Amino acid sequence: MSSPSATTNLSSEVVTNGIRVRVTPQFIPETSDPIGGRYNFAYHVTISNDGSENVVLRKRHWKIVDGDGDVRSIEGDGVVGQQPTIAPGGRFEYHSFAPLETHWGTMEGSFTFERADHTAFDAQIARFYLVGIEPKRRK
Q1: What confidence tier does 1 reach under pLDDT thresholds 50, 70, 90?
Q2: What is the value of pTM for the model shown?
Q3: What are the structural domains of the chain?
């Protein structure tokens, strides 16, 4: 069961099968080039195990949609080169980034976890918003 809740206007938080996933994005103006159509965003992910058994994060799936409606899917093993085990009451945090060609977009997806009995389940990553500065229009 999933239950989303808004944490800020841009962030997201949701609990699925006892796994709480919170994501907080941030625009990075120092490495972005609005005139050249490159907008960089960082995001901080906190995964908390509110359940009663150990879980291992095995896979990630991201759906990234830019302001033009172009969709990218990213799938892979673990996160940031790791497949962490998260004990009940424990948490795992990491930072990553996403470049876009538009000044805004969204991300959402899921993490696949494995229980000790080798059954798997997907924990939702609720939609969050990537919002940068709008490019100046030429006169």
Answers
A1: very low
A2: 0.90
A3: 2-131 (2.60.40.1470)
